[in-house]
Amino acid sequence: MFTNKEAFKTYFLQKLEMTYGKTFEDSTSSDHFQILGHMIREYVSTNWINTNEAYRRNQGKQVYYLSIEFLLGRLLYHNLINLGIEKVVTEGLNELGINLRDIEEIEHDAGLGNGGLGRLAACFLDSLATLNLPGHGFGIRYKHGLFEQRIVDGYQIELPEQWLKHGQVWEVRKEDLAVDIQFWGNIDMYEKDGKLQFRHLNAETVTAVPHDVPVIGYDTTTVNTLRLWNAEPASLLAKDVNDIMRYKRETEKISEFLYPDDANDEGKILRLKQQYFLVSSSLQSIIKNYKQQYKDIRNFHQHISIHINDTHPVLAIPELMRILLDNEELSWEEAWEITKNTISYTNHTTLSEALEKWPIYLFQPLLPRIYMIIQEINERFCNELWDKHPGDFHKIENMAIIAHGMVKMAHLALVGSYSVNGVAEIHTEILKKREMSDFYQVFPEKFNNKTNGITHRRWLIKANPKLTQLVTDTIGSEWIYQPDQLNKLLLFQQDNGFLQQLASIKQENKIHLAEIIKESNGITVDPTSIFDVQVKRLHAYKRQLLNVLHIMHLYNRLKENPTLDITPRTFIFGAKASPGYYYAKKIIKLINAVADKVNNDKTIQDKIKVVFLENYRVSLAEHIFPAADVSEQISTASKEASGTGNMKFMMNGALTVGTLDGANIEMRDLVGDDNIFIFGMNADEVLDLYQHGGYRSTEYYHHDKRIKEVVDQLKNGFFHDTNNEFDPIFDSLLIENDQYFVLKDFHSYENIHQVVDQTYKNQQKWLQMCTVNIAKSGHFSSDRTIKEYADEIWKIKSNF
Ligand code: 26V
């Protein structure tokens, strides 16, 4: 059906008629999207079946990637590219008078993630399938993905996201593969053949129904699976109607919402239910499959690797133990050996407030058997520690899995897995030397680094077709399969023809983004100005505030001297704040207040503009990265585990203004100091300062006139006429002593922006720097990352 455009057109029209009983003239873009989606699914179904068959036949090891988030975005165009049929489809549709880009807009983003962690999982799936690796995802089919953000009068408003409203073309519901999950109730212990046995009584049962999404590799026949679980009532045979209704509501709630983070207490039980729901359904399904193929459960870890993306799925450890002990009737020692050799774990943050802990009083009643198992794991682990460090109560207390009325999920992950990795070199070093140093001493062999990556197929080939074409015209197409070969572009640094083309592509992409800005915000921006972009979740440590304070400062300079010689700049922001994160929402309001004032001030002659793009998400990001000149990666050093947006900007030829944090450091190492704008304190300086009680932000405020001026403007109504609006921000800087060193890094940040301004004036030099960045960005393809996971952690092999 996709061999040539005639065949495509015929099939497309036929399907339209058969499915909707509509003539082409009566059909809508939405019909076209649905039809095309179904055609693709039909087209890949044989390969999907064959891939699974081949994995079974080969008897190779397989990996299951458990993640509470998969931030997929749209799939239509991405699938067309991976299948190599986007040209046929584009042309075929064109001849029917349909623009594929319009159809693409119909698709809702699958926004089943908050940010970096969820998008990483999606990039990994793409790389696994492309590299023909037997790796599948397990997640939750949330009815509502991450909330939709509206900006009203400068404030963030959240609306429920509705990606399933018009159905899901990509999923296949598999009711016959549903499994049951048990919550609450009590555990009955009894003796059988001289062995202690456990039975779960009076449990509330929830059914998990899989919805499988095909994960299509690029230019290959491999189609892996992302299995998303939906929570449904097990049976409605309860006593009375009220009971049925309550049970139905409680059950469906489990897969209703993606958590915008777990900062607030409310809903903690629900969050824990979600985690166990994901883990128990996935493990039951994995074991069922395994047993269909292999006889001896004792070899489980030789055929299966289970990866936990952060601690959210860490209950995979006690759940696997439960199944091996209670269902398979293995001994504790046997079960523990298998479990320890099956599970691997990635840590994604060192922020203490993000490390998961559950109060026992919530945990134990909800998951009684799982709690018993964790208790046993803890007791045995503490005994081992006691043997190694007799009398060191303090150490044991610090490392215990259960302590002070809490279950510590990271400790469980560290004890029950064979591999623990950080997501950038510096992050792994901080885990080893600081945050997890006690565990590193006990299990040094478990720790390793896997620097994050991004799929160049979505973030370059799909998002930036013009740059893709230029790269291929310049160095051939091998880089698509071996992204490291992008470094061949280094030979073209002095090639003015190449640089000119690079410049005009960036220009065209900027014009396109300017149109989006005009349409969504009504603001006219100059596409020849520097597009300076910060897009990421809003968090104090990411320091959007530093960026805004600098803009306020620039504005003050322009007010003082309207003829100030600066290159015109458009500052672009995109960020969602967690709904309960009051401070982050104030920063959004501040950005919008500054935007209002600056954009409407004629006296500064449009030299700076500020844009806050609402509802930042994957599909919007695909328009933003290709149009950026400057990438803002300005977290307080040591706080950003890796960052992945930084890599997307780099690959699209933006230059980074960044701190020595996360993967920025590895970017700097690759491109050299001359091709990146580094500023601010480094991680050691930050961490040492924390150890010595921080610094005195008021000194910076009193001694630096520029700082005093902008900080005062948070109080004096300069950017907003109602009093006290920005007091929480003012207080964070001066009363709470500026935990993230915004004022301390201000001077250095301002200086580096002057360097950016000067450098941009020399277009030749700027374009050469862009070229070096693109050339070196191949290292950050998630293909490289996934190969490292496959070889060094999971020990899985390509199917071909
Ligand atoms: C979670 C929470 C929840 C409680 C409130 C504060 C807070 C702050 C941060 C987080 C982050 C959770 C984990 C996460 O998404 N980490 C991100 O993972 C990316 C992929 O590895 C990485 O690039 C980012 O640097 C890292 O922040």
Automatic annotation (TrEMBL):
Cofactor section: pyridoxal 5'-phosphate
NCBIfam families from the UniProt entry: P_ylase
Record has Glycoprotein as a keyword: no
GO terms for MF: glycogen phosphorylase activity; pyridoxal phosphate binding
Protein name per its UniProtKB record: Alpha-1,4 glucan phosphorylase
Reported function: Phosphorylase is an important allosteric enzyme in carbohydrate metabolism. Enzymes from different sources differ in their regulatory mechanisms and in their natural substrates. However, all known phosphorylases share catalytic and structural properties. Allosteric enzyme that catalyzes the rate-limiting step in glycogen catabolism, the phosphorolytic cleavage of glycogen to produce glucose-1-phosphate, and plays a central role in maintaining cellular and organismal glucose homeostasis.
Assigned protein family: Belongs to the glycogen phosphorylase family.
Lineage of the species this protein comes from: Bacteria, Bacillati, Bacillota, Bacilli, Bacillales
Species of origin: Niallia nealsonii
GO cellular component terms listed in the entry, alphabetical order: cytoplasm
EC number assigned by the record: 2.4.1.1
